[in-house]
Amino acid sequence: MKRTKAQVQLLLGGLFLVLFLFTLQSPAIKQYISAVKGTPVSGSLSEDWMVKLKEFKSQHDVAPIDARIDPIWKAIPGYNGVQVNIEASHKKLKEAGKWDESLIVWEELEPKISLADLKPSPIYKGNPEKPMISFMVNVAWGNEYLPEILKTLEKYGVKSTFFLDGSWANKFPDEARKIKQAGHEIGNHAYSHPDMKTISLNRIRLEITKTNEVIQKELDIRPVLFAPPSGSFDDRVVQMAAQEKMYTILWTLDTVDWRKPAPSEIIRRLSPKLANGSLILMHPTESSMKALPALLEAAKSKGLKVGTVSDLLSSKRVDAIEVKR
Questions:
Q1: Does pTM top 0.70 for this prediction?
Q2: CB-based contacts of 160: which residues, under 8 Å, 6+ apart?
Q3: What pLDDT sits at residue 48?
Q4: Among 3.20.20.370, 1.10.3720.10, 3.40.190.80, 3.30.230.20, what is the CATH number of 120-316?
Q5: 278: CB partners within 8 A, 6+ apart
Q6: Can you give the pLDDT at residue 7?
Q7: How many whole angstroms separate alpha carbon 160 and alpha carbon 101?
Q8: Rg, the chain, Cα only
Q9: Domain limits, CATH 3.20.20.370, in the chain
Q10: pLDDT < 50 stretches in the chain
C-alpha cells in the first residue's frame, strides 16, 4: 500500500519518539540530565557507584609500612598507607552527578612503628617505597660556589638540607642566613670537623651542642639532624645525638666531590643509581655545582620528587596513589 508523504513523516516521527524515550532510560543519559539539572542521581546509579567504589578501594588501598632496623641500611623510616574513604567519595560523586576518579577521597594511614619508635641508629636512606630523594650539602668551606647552588635549587623549585659546620656558621653568619632565607633546611655538621669516633664523649657532646648554639643564635633554628664529618661515627656519637633529640644522617650515594672529579663523572656515576629514598651527599664544590642541574633532571625523568632530608624521612606520602599509577 503506497503511503503519502504525511503518513511517512508521521511514522518516522513516532519511531524517533520511541527511540528518544528509550534513550532516556540509559543510565548515562540519566546521569547527564541529573548533572545538568542538579537533581539527585537515581538510586540504581548511586548503588552502582557504591559497588564500583568498593571494587576501586580493593584495588588501590595500600597498607602502611612500619619503620624498621635493616641489617645493612640501619634505620629505615616508615611510609604511610592510603585508603579510599567510601562514604566521603560517594557523597562527592552524588553531588557531581557523575563518576570521576579525581573526586575520590583518600586518607593516609600511619604506620604502627615510626622512626621515633626505633632505637637510636644511623640513617642512610629513606623508605624504598617513597619516590623521593634528598640532596644533603655539608658546608664547612666553598662559599664561592654556594650562590650558584642556591640559584640552581631555586630554578628547579626544590629544597635541600644544608648541614653547617659550627665554626663556619660562626664565621659566616650572613652566608648561613642566605641559605635559611632561601627556604632550605639547616642541619648540624659538628663544630670543628673532627673525626667523631676518635674523640672523647665530652668532646662529642661539645661538638654537637656548640654547633646547635651557634645555629640557634644566628638563624633562630634548633637543628634536629646531625651529619658527622666525613661520615665518621660510632655508637657513642649516635647515642649522644639522640640525647639531643637529633637523628644521625649518613648517605646512600656520594658525589666524592672533594676529590674534584669532572662534573660529567659525577653525573655518569650517580644518575643511574638515583632511586626511591636516596640520600645524596655533596659539598659546595665546583664539581657538584656543575653536576647538580643534570642530577635534578635525572631525578625528574625518573619521577622522583626532591625534598629536604626531613621530607624524605617523614612517613607522609608523596602522592596518594603513586604506587598504583
A1: yes
A2: 134, 135, 136, 137, 153, 184, 185, 306, 308
A3: 87
A4: 3.20.20.370
A5: 125, 126, 133, 134, 252, 253, 304
A6: 55
A7: 33
A8: 29
A9: 120-316
A10: 8, 17-18, 21-24, 33-39, 323-325
